[in-house]
Amino acid sequence: MFSVDREVRVLLVDDQLLVGEMVGLLLEKQIEQGWHLHHIQNPLEAFESARDFKPTVMLVDLEMPELNGLQLLESIRAEPSMVNLPVIILSGYEDSETKAQAFERGASDYLVKLPDSVELVARLRHHTTGFIATRQRDQAERRSKRLAMELRKRNAQLVDLNKIFQQANEALKDEIVVRDARLKSIGSVGIEMSEIQDLDVMMQHILSEARHLVGAEAGAILTRDEDDLVVRYAQNDAHENAGRNAADLAGGFRVSISAGSISGKVTMTGQKINVRDVYSIPPDSGYTFMASYDERTGYRTKSLFTYPLSTASGEVLGVIQLANPFNKEGERKGGFDSGDEKLIENFASMASVALERALLTDSMIMRMVAIAETHDPEETGAHVNRVAGYSRVMFEAWAQRRGMDRSEMERRRDRLSNAARLHDVGKIGISDSILKKPGKLDLPEYAAMQMHTVIGARFFKGYQTEYDEIAREVALHHHEHWDGTGYPGETPVDELFHSPPETPIRSGLVGDEIPIEARIVGLADVYDALSSKRSYKDAWPESKVLQEIADLSGKQFDPELVEIFLDRSDRMRVIRETYKSDSA
Ligand code: C2E
Ligand code: SIN
Ligand code: SIN
Ligand code: FE
Ligand code: FE
Predict the structure, then answer these.
(1) Where would you tag: which of 25, 91, 144, 469 has the fewest CB atoms within 10 A of its CB?
(2) What's the CATH code of the domain at 51?
């Protein structure tokens, strides 16, 4: 997302042809790498050129016959679409008076003609980076505002629907025609899954770019979970170089916000904290480093910079932490300087926008889950998050075995993750007397229960995006069995919907006819169902759960997935710690 070298577009305004040629030469290497340079000699054409060429930075000569550089600068700053565009004044003069005038009129920088190539390149790149970051933040903010409005509207509709369900529930039981109408109205609310961006991909990029720019060996993003902060993303070159996975070591680590930790303090105050050595923090500073973090990961944190991730309204969603900076020569630095802080600030605001937006999307999905939950108390937010977590791990390993391209893998994994959270939304359409039955279901009841797959699939039917496609397949096929004894198989969804079977469906898709995403969620769902308490069963101990899964390999489950799963039971445990539920 931040390969700036493909985005630098320099608009040069200088009356002399020669200057254009010189700048072209100075930037020759960069232009080969993808930079764009456009030279115009008449400043009166500057606006038109800027509209067509879309520069990320402008170089403007101070003295030109038609209009001097300072006048041009003033009119640029008066133009709303160009206020933020970096403008560097090029001049033959070095006196402070001229420089002061340029900065007063809004120049972003000032260069004496002609600078050497290294300096010119560095400044153009620097200003372009800042410009693009601002532009992305603005775009993200606009998108997030739009989505928030949209969501408020939808939430209102959902609240109404929810009331209707509750009132109608008793009366509607078993009345297929009316149920049909009720479900249609849910369907029309719709879940446009395409709105959902790949949060994890974005956050990992933001963290690695921020680390890269300031040379930090390690970094983490912690987000709020009620009274705790939880490590959601962790990167650490020292671990990776030693063949250890930083995310596994640190992921799920919790710090109580009020316990006096650095990150807790930053969360409470909304103020950054920059520490040169976490092992010699003065006792009167009001915070301490949680050494248990280093003990757990086996890493020695020294310098630590912690910045809040806060929304426009000032609510702190979490923190970004960077540790142990190195300089360009590969030597350890004593700490993060104010330049580093500035850079990180930019990434923090991008991360905040991304997080805030994801929380809105989350609330939309969780709203759907909550509606299902009013019917099925076991189908909780924690349950669906765990199922999503196990599914992600399995999909990664499965994709890796096939040599799937990393970005393709991340995209599909994140889609799967949202689809997994919605696997059982179809339980909305199942009557309470069946869902909440404390004991075993009889055959007609079980047949009715099976309809949750078909009902869920219908929610995503009208949408064409890849998100909805995967959500549909997962909802429909997550109870298929590898040996073909699952459900609902190929039975046409609409036919089933209008005349549900009297007895349970006993034949389904076989083997890899079952979409991989559905095979994965099916295994994750059973793992979680067995390890949790249900209205009809107790929680099983882990050893018994793993034994059952091994026994069902090749029967209920894809043997390859069982192998992948059992190899990673440690990572599954991290996910269970991250999303603990009250009942499990
Ligand atoms: P669920 O509770 O989320 O369970 C998901 C799946 O986990 C089940 O799909 C089944 O494959 C597996 N599972 C659950 N408990 C056991 C177990 O004790 N042993 C084994 N080997 N597998 C188990 P299934 O059977 O298609 O059920 C779908 C949903 O139907 C369940 O979701 C639950 O909500 C409901 N359900 C199934 N059987 C009963 C029952 O006897 N009583 C009640 N009240 N609900 C049931
Ligand atoms: C890590 O060690 O994985 C994260 C760096 C830190 O926050 O100390
Ligand atoms: C952490 O945040 O995970 C440990 C460092 C701290 O005390 O903030
Ligand atoms: Fe299900
Ligand atoms: Fe489930």
Answers:
(1) 25
(2) 3.40.50.2300
- 390: region left, alpha or beta (phi > 0 left; psi from -120 to 50 alpha): alpha
Assess if residue 314 is contained within a domain: yes
| Ligand 3 mutation target, pool 224, 236, 254, 261, most atoms within 8 A of CB | 261
- Rounded to the nearest angstrom, the distance between the alpha carbon of 38 and the centre of ligand 5 is 58
Collect all residues with Cβ–Cβ distance below 8 Å to 572 and sequence separation of at least 6: 390, 393, 527, 565
291 and 430 together in one domain: no
- Choosing from 534, 538, 583 the residue with most ligand 1 atoms within 8 A of its CB, the one to mutate for a pocket test is 534
306 and 396 belong to one structural domain: no
Find, among 358, 359, 348, the residue nearest to 266 by Cα. Answer: 348
| Domain housing 79 | 4-115
CATH number for 343: 3.30.450.40
d(Cα 468, Cα 460) in Å, to the nearest integer?
A: 5
What three-state secondary structure class fits 355? helix
Domain count, the chain: 3
- Ligand 2 site residues, Cβ closer than 6 angstroms: 218-220, 234, 236, 246, 250, 297, 299, 301, 304, 321, 323
310 within some domain: yes
CA-nearest residue, atom 3 of ligand 3: 293
Is the CB–ligand 3 distance for residue 289 below 6 Å? yes
Burial classification of residue 59, based on how many CB atoms lie within 10 Å of its CB (0-12 exposed, 13-18 middle, 19 or more buried):
buried
- Whether residues 353 and 380 fall in one domain: no
Cα gap 230→223, rounded to integer Å:
5
**Residue ranges around ligand 1 (CB below 6 Å):** 437, 440-441, 449, 479, 525-526, 529-530, 534-537, 548
